[in-house]
Specification:
Arc Repressor Mutant, subunit A, Tet_transcr_reg_TetR-rel_C_sf, 2 domains, elongated, Tetracycline Repressor, domain 2, transcription cis-regulatory region binding, about 210 residues, disordered N terminus, mainly alpha, about 80% helix, 9 helices, about 0% strand
Length: about 210
């Protein structure tokens, strides 16, 4: 009896897991198609009807996953933020060489933004200027990045007062933001090693600030 119940429970788990897997796969397909439209044609050209038609599904079926256009765009931006953060989480931290950690973090973000992720980042920034919903997403994303950078600054200068550490983290995030836009709109021939060189320059500038503040 116990074995039969166990088998039934496991069968239910497998069925539910399959449903979740299929549902997640469909969500990702919708997001991927919508993301491509945003990148190639812009926000104004994005519509649920167009996405549904491209994927061979009804609008009603698509709305099961994303009731509105803004729900869909919000999901895409959220996934982009998660992807950007994963780039940072993959960088190993070594307290013995904080300067190398800083260079690695800046370089990883700039290389990430040299891809179409940087173009999407620019679109998300524009949307945040005009819609509180997207502005809130931007604020949350920046909070995670700022927290990471502030901890990195703490490795570089553990003696620094909290307010100065936060200020330096703001400066570093601002430099990364500006450099990300430059990398995204730079000519293709200036990328590659140029991204790493730019990352080194940013890290060096921060180190100089640290020396002046110490």
């Amino acid at each position: 009896m116990i074995d039969d119940v166990f088998k039934q429970d496991m069968a239910t788990v497998k069925i539910n897991s399959t449903k979740r897997t299929k549902g997640e796969a469909r969500r990702q397909a919708i997001e991927a198609e919508a993301r491509q439209v945003l990148l190639s044609e812009g926000y104004a050209c994005l519509s649920l009807r167009t996405i549904a038609s491209s994927l061979g599904m009804s609008v009603g079926n698509l709305q099961y996953y994303f009731p509105t256009k803004d729900d869909l765009v919000e999901a895409i931006i959220t996934r982009e933020i998660e992807t950007s953060l994963s780039v940072l989480w993959e960088i190993p931290w070594d307290p013995a060489t904080p300067d190398l950690c800083t260079r690695a973090a800046v370089s990883a973000l700039l290389h990430h933004h040299a891809s179409d992720a940087g173009q999407f980042y620019a679109i998300a920034e524009f949307l945040a200027l005009h819609d509180p919903r997207y502005a809130l997403l931007k604020t949350k994303g920046y909070a995670f990045v700022f927290s990471y950078i502030e901890q990195l600054v703490g490795l570089m200068a553990p003696h620094l007062e909290t307010d100065r550490r936060a200020r330096l983290a703001q400066v570093l995030v601002a430099l990364i933001d500006g450099a990300s836009l430059q990398v995204q709109f730079a000519h293709a021939s200036s990328l590659g090693d140029g991204v790493d060189a730019l990352a080194n320059d940013i890290a060096f500038a921060v180190e100089q600030l640290l020396e002046n503040w110490s």
